[in-house]
């Protein structure tokens, strides 16, 4: 168990990392962890995550692809699962029998693209589903139940970009909605007047990257807010006064990378934090050292290491969180601002 402490003379929450924590990168154990997680369908963890199974497949497949071990998963079985989750309206559900949602539609498209089998998708149906979720203010509902926030704006344009169909939505209105969620501190929230948050900043910066609109933000103001997320432990948090979490190693660092300010944080300290979150016995990464590993944190820990060009990990795209060689094959590009 890692000790949680408040830094003296301030109210900063952080964790204490000692020399006892794992430092070496356990590549083989991580690939085995993902393979076991996918194969053991009777495990408690597998059963209890049915409601996000499609995203779980994306996290696992992308992790293995980055480690050059994607052959450990059965691509035919994965594609059949995707086909079984496609709804009549073109939306894709997280698991068979669940309602479709934009989040899982993106995950399914990402999976198919990584497997080089996007041609097997009913593209026009999926495009129609996404188009119909755009609202008069330019934002997107996540599904038919009407939740609207900036996560879904990113999911919509990322999905359409991968399918080569960004032309079907009102892009001008979509950009206006995202920019209406831009805050005085440089960050973005889920909707207008909402608090800035690292995960939502990633979605909004990613949206602007896909649509070639990064010129609309001030990279220095946003970069400062993002750099303030790094704590003495080296880890990154999602917003002020929160503990560090491995997933923000991706959300924060990828956002900094897209706006050309990734050199503003201490990468060595961040690597040390990420390595400390590995499970030495089972493989996989947890949110913080000593906690239970899962595929979600495993992907985003390894993805952040990829952005830092860690040896042995394939190159990843900071906007789509997909291998760069997949995006090159698809001829899909995204905007990245130059370093000043």
UniProtKB/TrEMBL annotation:
Reported cofactor(s): Zn(2+)
A Gene Ontology term for the protein's cellular component: Rab-protein geranylgeranyltransferase complex
Keyword Transferase applies: yes
InterPro entries associated with the record: PGGT1B-like, Prenyltrans, Ptb1, Terpenoid_cyclase/PrenylTrfase
Cofactor: binding comment: Binds 1 zinc ion per subunit.
GO molecular function: metal ion binding; Rab geranylgeranyltransferase activity
Gene Ontology process terms (BP): protein localization to membrane
Parts forming coiled coils: none
Keywords annotated in UniProt: Metal-binding, Prenyltransferase, Repeat, Transferase, Zinc
The EC number(s) this enzyme carries: 2.5.1.60
Domain of life according to the entry: Eukaryota
A Pfam short name: Prenyltrans
Annotated ranges, domain Prenyltransferase alpha-alpha toroid: 25-322
Catalytic activity: geranylgeranyl diphosphate + L-cysteinyl-[protein] = S-geranylgeranyl-L-cysteinyl-[protein] + diphosphate
Catalytic class of the enzyme: transferase
Record's function text: Catalyzes the transfer of a geranylgeranyl moiety from geranylgeranyl diphosphate to both cysteines of proteins with the C-terminal sequence -XXCC, -XCXC and -CCXX.
PANTHER family: GERANYLGERANYL TRANSFERASE TYPE BETA SUBUNIT (PTHR11774), GERANYLGERANYL TRANSFERASE TYPE-2 SUBUNIT BETA (PTHR11774:SF11)
Family: Belongs to the protein prenyltransferase subunit beta family.
Subunit-level organization: Heterodimer of an alpha and a beta subunit.
Protein name according to UniProt: Geranylgeranyl transferase type-2 subunit beta
Protein's organism: Parthenolecanium corni
């Amino acid at each position: 168990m890692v000790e949680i402490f408040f830094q003296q003379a301030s109210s900063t929450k952080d964790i204490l990392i000692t020399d006892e924590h794992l430092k070496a990168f356990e590549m083989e154990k991580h690939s085995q962890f993902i393979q076991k997680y996918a194969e053991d369908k009777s495990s408690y963890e597998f059963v209890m995550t049915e409601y996000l199974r499609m995203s779980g497949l994306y996290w696992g497949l992308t992790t293995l692809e980055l480690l050059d071990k994607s052959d450990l998963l059965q691509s035919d079985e994965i594609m059949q699962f995707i086909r079984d989750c496609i709804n009549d309206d073109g939306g894709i559900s997280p698991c068979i029998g669940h309602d479709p949602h934009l989040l899982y539609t993106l995950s399914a498209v990402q999976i198919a693209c990584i497997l080089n089998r996007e041609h097997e998708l009913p593209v026009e149906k999926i495009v129609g589903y996404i188009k119909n979720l755009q609202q008069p203010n330019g934002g997107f509902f996540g599904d038919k139940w009407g939740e609207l926030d900036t996560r879904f704006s990113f999911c919509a344009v990322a999905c359409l970009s991968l399918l080569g169909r960004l032309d079907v939505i009102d892009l001008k209105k979509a950009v206006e909605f995202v920019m209406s969620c831009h805050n005085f501190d440089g960050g973005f929230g889920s909707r207008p007047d909402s608090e800035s948050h690292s995960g939502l900043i990633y979605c909004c910066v990613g949206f602007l990257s896909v649509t070639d609109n990064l010129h609309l933000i001030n990279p220095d103001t946003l970069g400062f807010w993002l750099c303030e997320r790094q704590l003495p432990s080296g880890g990154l948090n999602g917003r002020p006064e929160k503990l560090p979490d491995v997933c923000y190693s991706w959300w924060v660092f990828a956002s900094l990378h897209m706006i050309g300010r990734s050199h503003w944080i201490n990468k060595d300290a961040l690597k040390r934090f990420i390595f400390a979150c590995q499970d030495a016995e089972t493989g996989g990464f947890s949110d913080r050292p000593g906690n239970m590993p899962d595929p979600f944190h495993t992907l985003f820990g390894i993805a952040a290491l990829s952005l830092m060009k860690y040896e042995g990990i394939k190159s990843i795209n900071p906007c789509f969180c997909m291998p760069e060689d997949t995006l090159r094959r698809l001829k899909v590009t995204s905007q990245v601002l130059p370093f000043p």
